[in-house]
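To the wet lab folks,

You asked to see what we're planning to order before we commit. Fair enough. Below is the target structure as tokens, and below that is the sequence we designed to fit it. If anything looks off to you, flag it before the synthesis order goes out.
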């Protein structure tokens, strides 16, 4: 079946594998109390874990590409629109990059 992101839940088939019940954190499983996989506490940077000081995994500073690391000049990994297609969403914001990083990369 594949990963689908509806803006709140990340599903693999009918099973919820992660959620974004808080708009800036991706949590494991269906509970808002699950382990935090990553966050977007800085508007355009995807961070590891729950801290805004965590390691920057990727960024969407140019709004068109998901780029490696924290620099707007970082290596492009994928176009944000292509990442959205891979995870079954129409959203092309930082939440798409966060879900893509953990479930479709």
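Sequence we intend to order:
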């Amino acid at each position: 079946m594949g990963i689908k992101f509806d803006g709140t839940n990340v599903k693999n088939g009918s099973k919820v594998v992660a959620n974004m019940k808080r708009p800036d954190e991706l949590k494991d499983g269906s509970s808002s109390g699950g382990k935090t996989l990553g966050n977007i506490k800085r508007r355009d940077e995807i961070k590891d874990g729950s801290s805004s000081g965590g390691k920057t995994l990727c960024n969407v500073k140019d709004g068109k590409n998901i780029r490696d690391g924290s620099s707007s000049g970082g290596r492009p990994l994928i176009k944000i629109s292509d990442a959205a297609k891979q995870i079954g969403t129409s959203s092309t914001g930082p939440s798409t990059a966060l879900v893509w990083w953990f479930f479709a990369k």
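Structural context that might help your review: The chain has a mean pLDDT of 95. The radius of gyration is 12 Å.

Thanks,
Computational group
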